[in-house]
Structure formats: C-alpha cells, structure tokens
Design a protein that fits this description.
binds S-adenosylmethionine; 202 residues; 23% strand; alpha/beta; globular; 7-stranded mixed β-sheet; Rossmann fold
Length: 202
C-alpha cells in the first residue's frame, strides 16, 4: 500500500516535471538522504514558525511535520495546483498550512492571512529551483525581511548546476554571515545543501 503511494507520488512528480520543468527543476522527489540533510539544521526545539518554499510532492513537508513540536507552525508554499491539491489531501496535522501562492508574494500573504510580521520567522527551508528564479530578488524582498535575527535559511542546489558554472554560494555570501555546506550524493541528481544564518545585531 505504502509502496503504491510512493509510486504514485513519483509518477505524479515526473508528470508535472515534464509539463513545467523550469518551475519544478527536477525529475524526482527529494531522496530520504537529501531530506534529512535539509531538515536536520532546523532548530525544532526552539522554532515557533517555519516556512517551506516549494513543497512539491510533500517529501520534505512530511518530515518537518514528523519532527516539529505540535505548537510550532509550518506554512508551506506551493504554486503548482496539482501538487497543492495532493498536499492538502495527504498532509494533515496540527499547525500546518499549505498555501497555493507564489513565494514572491509570500510576505504579503503571510501578513494578510496569518498576521505574520517581518522579522518573526525562525527558519525558511527552500527546495525551489533557485537558478531559474530571480533568486536574489526573492532573498532581499521576501526571505531576509521575514527572518528573525539569527534566523536560518536552507536552500539546495543540484551538482549539475555547478557543472554548468551556476553557483549559489557567492549570492548567499552577500547576505548571510554564516554558511554551512553539506554534499548529498544519494539524490537525483546529487545536491549541495546550504544552511545560512542571518547575523545577530549587538
Ligand atoms: C524541486 S521541486 C520541490 C521538490 C520537493 N522538495 C519534493 O521532494 O517533492 C520545486 C517546487 O517548487 C515549486 N515552485 C517553483 N517556483 C515557485 C514559486 N515561485 N512559488 C511557489 N512554488 C514554486 C514547484 O512547483 C515545485 O513543486
């Protein structure tokens, strides 16, 4: 039963990927090794508000749901309507909200729908295909204003992008005071996971 569900999810992902490759940016949901590498840096014991950008099949979302404290809130953004409907159907839990909106409008949506102010998010985890987006604009207009002082931003990139010479680190370095890197070989394709921290003003 579980393997049938995974098969459906992979098929569904591939199907959407063929139709909207630029927006999805990958052919398969993230592997469990990649999910762990993405989710491990989230400070679950202290985080009150976690955002996810690009929930896709819900593989990362499901793991956050398993690990988060019941009182902490997870708000996941997913623009693709098919993925969104599946996420709404499959993911249930306390304090989890799936939002069918573009992340470039996330600050506005968070304020209007949830009363979330800037500077109040503990962690933003993103599996967006950063190289096909105006990523630095997203960082400056949405991600950085939303994060608390000392807040965490997690983003991955595929090694294929490195081969093409498309690099994420220099962009992140311009905006974050601390950046840690993890290499995930067991993923299609292998990935680099960046964990970045905003500075704490004294
Ligand atoms: C690589 S996939 C996510 C993979 C996901 N972690 C998984 O394992 O299934 C990237 C996702 O970001 C979504 N996305 C891309 N651009 C977006 C945007 N501007 N706003 C919201 N979601 C977006 C895509 O629809 C896609 O589902």
């Amino acid at each position: 039963m579980k393997s049938k569900r995974i098969e459906n999810s992979v098929f569904n992902f591939l199907n959407q990927s063929v139709r909207h490759f630029k927006e999805i940016g990958s052919v398969a949901p993230d592997s469990s090794t990649c999910i762990n590498s993405l989710v491990n840096p989230i400070p679950f014991d202290s985080a009150e508000l976690i955002l996810e950008y690009g929930a896709g099949s819900g593989a990362v979302t499901g793991e956050i749901l398993k690990r988060k404290e019941p009182e902490s809130t997870l708000i996941s953004f997913e623009k693709n309507k098919i993925f969104y409907s599946r996420l709404r159907k499959n993911l249930k839990g306390k304090n989890i909200f799936i939002v069918n909106e573009d992340v470039f409008n996330s600050r506005n949506i968070l304020l209007l729908r949830f009363g979330v102010q800037g500077g109040s998010v503990d962690c933003i985890i993103s599996t967006l295909p950063w190289s096909s987006l105006k990523f630095e604009e997203l960082l400056m207009n949405e991600i950085l204003p939303l994060l608390k002082e000392g807040g965490i931003f997690i983003q991955y990139m595929y090694t294929l992008s490195v081969l093409k010479g498309i690099l994420l680190r220099p962009i992140l370095k311009r905006h974050f005071s601390q950046i840690d890197l993890d290499f995930v070989f067991f993923n299609i394709p292998p990935a680099l996971v960046y964990t970045c921290r905003t500075s704490i003003k004294k």
